[in-house]
Amino acid sequence: MHKLRTTLSHLYMGAFLIYLIIPLVIMAGAAFNDSKLPSIVPWRGWTLRWFHDLFQDERMWTALFNTMVVALAVAVISIIIGTASAILINSISGRIRTVIYGLMISTILIPGAVIGISTLLMWNKIGVPPGLHLSVLGQVSYIAAMVMLLVLARLQTFDGALEEAALDLGASHGQVMRRILLPHLYPAIGAGGAVAFFQSIENFNVTQFTRGGADTLTVYVFSRVRSGITPTINALALIMITITLMAAVWYELSRRRKERIMLAGMSRDED
Predict the structure, then answer these.
(1) pTM here?
(2) Is the pLDDT assigned to residue 203 strictly greater than 70?
(3) Is residue 52 in a domain?
(4) What local confidence, expressed as pLDDT, does residue 156 receive?
């Protein structure tokens, strides 16, 4: 019975991986197919023309630059707001904690189109014109809550006695924050920054309503789909997926190397 469960679990895992990988393989193949349609059937031969066309597309490069600027701004602001919110929520109790937590979490549940329209209308009332700056503000309004959840989860493992001991030994609150609390939160802050960055890159609804006349990658792809999609989109997707996989592999190798160094240091201490 145990062997049957193991076999079924392996089959399920294999089928799940195939389900995820096959669309990516087809997408990647279409980027090299010498056909004007983004498909691998019929196969008309190998070509790199779609990558050449992509790199010659000035609008794509402008959209990529705008996307990176917005994503970096969203990541920085979300880290600041999300971390501060998590520390505040963790330090208070009672009804006010529930209210603040509920207000932060509610933004995640609101549809992106509603956030985009609300952001545009509110800032227009104040006299602020649409543009990428509004895209940043609109995205931060809900992405900061994701960062908050990650930091708040990390705070649950923080030993408050360390903070009290540091204060008793004469450390200021600023020193406790810089040398004890923040170092403990760095893994969650880093993960939150990564989540914020990639959430911003893939955002469409909020950006579409607040961007003004500026382009981002998602808006660029959407406009290309409307005007007639070509395999240049497949080439762009392949490049982005490759960069993401390389970054994931680099992170995992770096994590394992640090773990080996830490274990080696612990072994030397024990000896």
Answers:
(1) 0.82
(2) yes
(3) no
(4) 86
Burial class (CB in 10 A: 0-12, 13-18, 19+), 88: middle
Q: Which two tokens stand for residue 214?
A: 């500026």
Is residue 213 included in any domain, yes or no?
yes
DSSP state of 177: I
Domain, as residue range, for 90: 60-270
**Can you spell out the DSSP letters for 102-116?**
HHHHHHHHS-HHHHH
| Per-residue model confidence as pLDDT tens digits over 229-258 | 778 888 888 888 888 889 888 888 887 888
- Arithmetic mean of pLDDT over the chain: 87
Pick from 154, 190, 177: nearest CA to 79:
190
The answer to whether position 28 is within a domain reads: no
158: CATH = 1.10.3720.10
Instruction: Look up residue 204 and give its two tokens.
Output: 């469409």
Please state whether the peptide bond connecting residue 42 to the residue before it is cis, i.e. omega within 30 degrees of 0.
yes
Q: How many domains does the chain have?
A: 1
> Does a structural domain hold residue 9?
no
Confidence tier at 115 by pLDDT (50, 70, 90): very high
ω into 129 cis (within 30 of 0): no
Q: Which helix (H) or strand (E) holds 95?
A: helix 95-109
d(CA 259, CA 93): 36
